Amino acid sequence: MIEIRGLRKTYRSRKQSVNAVDNVDLTVGEGEVYGVLGQSGAGKSTLLRCVNMLERPDTGTVAVDGVELTALGGKRLRIARHGIGMIHQHFALLSSRTVAGNVAFALEVTGAPRAERRARVAELLELVGLSGRADAYPSQLSGGQKQRVGIARALAARPKVLLSDEATSALDPETTDSILRLLLDLNRRLGLTILLITHEMTVVKRICTSAAVMRDGKFVESGRVADLLRRD
Ligand code: ADP
Ligand code: ADP
C-alpha cells in the first residue's frame, strides 16, 4: 500500500546540511499498522511529510496504492493526496469553525456536492464517537475529542492510508489509550492502512504490527513488532 525506495531529503543552509532522511526503504502492506519510532530529530516527521509530498524528496520514489506520487505534480498530485489522510499532534483544527464545519471543510476541498456533505459529516462524527458535539467549537472540546475531530476530518475523503504524526503525544495516558483503540478499530473495520511516527515505545507495542527504529535519518532496525521486542 505504501512503497518507499531510496528516499533522501537533505536540508541545506549556508552553514550546514542535514540529511534528515538518508536512503530509506519502506514497504507497508494493506491493512498494516506500521510505526516509525525514534527520538526528536531522527527524521520521522520529514519522512512522513514525504509520504504525502508535503515535502518533495531529493531522490527516491514514493508510491501509495500503486500510484507513484513522486512522478506527479499539480492537479494529479492533489487528487492522489485525497487517498491519504493525516492527523497531527496538535490537531490543527480551524478554531473559527464548529466540529461539523471542520469536517465539512475537508469535504468541500474534495468537491463533494453540498447535499452529500451533511450526511457524510454525520456519518464521520458517528464513526469517531462525536455525534453529540457537531455544533461545538474546538475550544469547547477536550484533547481527546479534538483528536477525534482530526481523525474524522482525515477520513472525510475515504482514504486508504492514514498518516499519524505523534497523534497521542499531547494527550494523557488514558486519552491516549482511547485514541489508539479508535485507530485500531478503524484499521480493522475500514481496512485502513496506518503509518504512524512516535517517540513512544508504548504506542508501537499497543497497536503496531511492524515497526522501524529511525536514527540520524536511517532505519537502524525494522521488522515485525513481536520479533523486534524479542531482540531487546
Ligand atoms: P523528527 O520528526 O524525528 O523529530 P525531523 O524530521 O523533524 O525529525 O528532523 C530531522 C532533521 O532535519 C533535524 O536535524 C531537523 O533539525 C532537520 N529539519 C527538519 N525540518 C527542517 C527544515 N524545514 N529546515 C531545516 N532543517 C530541518
Ligand atoms: P461553520 O460555521 O463552522 O462553517 P456550519 O454550521 O456552517 O459550520 O456547517 C458547515 C457544514 O457542516 C454544513 O455545510 C453542513 O454540511 C455541516 N453541518 C453543520 N452542522 C451539522 C450537523 N449538526 N450535522 C451534520 N453536519 C452538519
From TrEMBL:
ABC transporter domain spans which residues? 2-232
Q: Does the keyword Translocase apply?
A: yes
Keyword annotations for this protein, in alphabetical order, are: Amino-acid transport, ATP-binding, Cell membrane, Membrane, Nucleotide-binding, Translocase, Transport
Query: Which example biological process does GO assign this protein?
Result: amino acid transport
Classify the source by domain of life: Bacteria
Is Signal set as a keyword in this record? no
Recorded GO molecular functions are:
ATP binding; ATP hydrolysis activity
One GO CC term on file: plasma membrane
What is the similarity comment for this entry? Belongs to the ABC transporter superfamily.
Q: Subunit structure, per the record?
A: Homodimer. Forms a membrane-associated complex with FtsX.
Role according to the record: Part of the ABC transporter FtsEX involved in cellular division. Has ATPase activity.
Please report the name of this protein according to its UniProt entry: D-methionine transport system ATP-binding protein
| Species assigned in the record | Actinoplanes lutulentus
From the broadest rank down, the organism's phylogenetic lineage runs: Bacteria, Bacillati, Actinomycetota, Actinomycetes, Micromonosporales
Summarize which stretch of the complete protein this chain spans: 1 to 232 of 324
